[in-house]
Here is the input.
Amino acid sequence: MKKHRINPFALLLLTPALLIACAAEEPVVETEHPSVVVTQWNDSTELFLEYPQPVVNEALGNWAIHLSSMKDFKPVTSGTLTVTFLRGGSAAQSFTLEAPARDGIFLLDPVIENPGDYQVQLSLSSPQVTSTHEVPVTVWTSAEEIPVEEEAESTAAISFLKEQQWKIDWAIEPAVEQPVARSVAAPAEIVPRDGALVQVSAPTSGIALAASNEGSPSAGQAVSSGQVLAVLAPTAGEGGYARARGELERLQRDVARDERLFAAGAIPERRLLDARQQLEIAQAEIAAMGGGADADFRLRVRAPISGVIAERSFVPGGRVEAGQPLFTVVNPSAVWLKIQMPAGSASSLTRESQAIFTVEGTSRTFTSGRLISVGSVVDPQTRTVSVTYEVDNAGGLIQVGQFARASVPIGGTVTGVAIPTDAILDDNGTPVAFVQVGGESFERRVLTLGENDGLRTAILDGIRPGEMVVTRGGYQVRLASLSPEGFSGGHAH
Here is the structure.
């Protein structure tokens, strides 16, 4: 077999070419610099700003400027935004955006002529709100100058976008140090105040004629004092309405006749006085039955108070017996909050104290009126006493019979970091709240709770002063934390 020899000179010529080819095939690694993210709050607006690292004389890329009103936490939907790059206190360059690109978001693609450190002033003039933010920005001479940031460790931040926040009932609030009243939490019930709940019974036996009771009010309908609730056709029998009504009319005729005879001197005055007395007794009997000066012999059952029909217990066309309940009428404009408090705590209450409470079915917080009474007998089973507060219910938001949870001040305060009680969620038995660490980033915080005055709760551990706490919308943030993708879905700037 013939062997071929390799020319060493040819190998020397080939080696550099191979090296050049290999080098050409190696990928060029370009450093990507993360966008700058800024979140600022002032009394008027929340600014959430995203922008790429700026290089001089190059389009900076879209600045996504999110602005929300701190009044209602909704997006700014109109107005002019002026973005001014300040250097040494003087305006270097300025850009004006006549309107948001879409609700809550202004888009800007500025080109800056000179490198350096700037204070960028963002001034908003809108029918909704007027506000100014200032943000430090560095403009680099070239991309190579931009420092490479070390990769940050992964955090447990929860993503919840501005577009999601703007669509729901949303609010945030800074945690601040403040006094919280020492209070006792206790179960309670909404009950009618004295005289505000009346049961209307049939004063006599009779038939509730169907035709006469077509307009009889049903449960839930409002009625006024004196309004006819039902019409009965009394049946015969001792003490019946028809018999009493007939006796009344006979006595009215007798008195009229005796008055004429007395005027003519035909009878003594005593006989006239006796007739008038019998008439008064008959009128009192009719009035006790609820009857009036109606032309027929039917009994009209009337509402004794103004209020709402809580229950109707008869069927038109059926028979009712004397004393049978027909209606329950309740006046809900003012109710009582009856609290079962520990006996030792109840003894410290004063007439000036007010209870804070919530009722079943809603998280809304209510404040009681004046203290009505403090019980003097301890329940042997619960070791509590009954404490009653008056509650104005003119709006009708509270219903008689609802269970409640009350917080009653017992004197003294504690001072510390406090947040609204509504911001605290029960996460499988663990009290938690959500803190906004950035415009669209949140953290779940496990809390150690202190005193609670019904409106605010002292936080012993879990939240620091100044941190922005989600006070409305925390449940939706919790749902986002349970989603693998955090409900983010990405922006569409």
Observations:
- Confidence is low (pLDDT under 50) at residues 1-25.
